[in-house]
Amino acid sequence: MTAQGNDWSQWGALWRDQPAIDVARLRRDAARKRWRMRVFVALEIAMSLVAFGSCLWRMMTTSGRWQLWSGASLLLVILLQILYLHVRRGTWRASGQDVRSLQQLTIVRAKAGIRLARINLWSTLAWTVFTLLISAPELEPSRWQADHRLRLMLTLQVAVNGPLILATVALCAWYIRRQRKRIESVGAMGLSEDAPAHRI
Amino acid sequence: MTHVGGKGEFDQLLREHAGLLSRIAASYEADRALRDDLLQDMALALWRALPSWRGDAPLRAFVARVAHNRGATHVIGQMRRPVGGELSEDWAESRHGPDGHAELEQRRVHLQDAVRRLPLSLRQAVTLALEGFSHAEIADTLGITANSVGVRLSRAKAALKAVLGDGQ
What we know:
A: mainly alpha, B: mainly alpha, Butyryl-CoA Dehydrogenase, subunit A, domain 3, globular
């Protein structure tokens, strides 16, 4: 270290006298976290593949309006997967940038995240409306009142997809709000090299 | 070409740099639980980044760089400036008994607090300077010029002195 006077020497000695973490514990915790991340990614990929395969299978085995519906669902699954991958990119990011690059990268990704979340939000709502339109004939009370199996299937669809759609909308709204705050916060950090030092 | 890739070698690297990693993590996070999380993230980032280390820079500088990048990501991710840390009991008693060196511990906590409150760009240069890195090493680690290092350290010193006073 080049000479910076007694202050740096004294502060440095004081600084380096801090206790260090228990490495064995750190290694155990990090290994656990690594496995958890791998399991989550594997589960997510598996679920996406199941959803993708299911939509593809329906598209190939149905015709007319339900084939159209399967195609739209397939598109939504792909959009969702893009969003999830985008969101996860930050956690897998390689450590090679300096702070200002990280700041810029964060802003760019937050903006892209907002765009993707909006696409996801509106496509989910559009998919819901589209599904209701496609299944309008089956939703006629005279149809499902007379058909026990259809009634059961509709009940199941509402019970499963209703909360899922609401959760997706809430998640997207939350994510957009969070990214907006992040952009404001990162912009206000003042990481410019020429900026005057912040007062402590 | 040097390579540190094996599990045993990685453990050895963690042991050798535990102090450096702990101190860098402490400069980003006052909360003990979050600091532990950050340390895990730093260890993971190191594990992922190690294959890219070619031995052209000292390993200590490489470790510091990865840790700082992870710390900066943590601050940006948390969307907040760290608040001044209070003296947690296990932290304080890990080195000293209840009646020993209390003043020294207090000074150390004040220094940690003051460093944490520095803007990110100054904080990174300061922690490396406090670790004993030269201006050239700091410049290399942070990817900035030696002149910028001088400017940052000068600003940081003024800010630290304003808080810590001349007695520290």
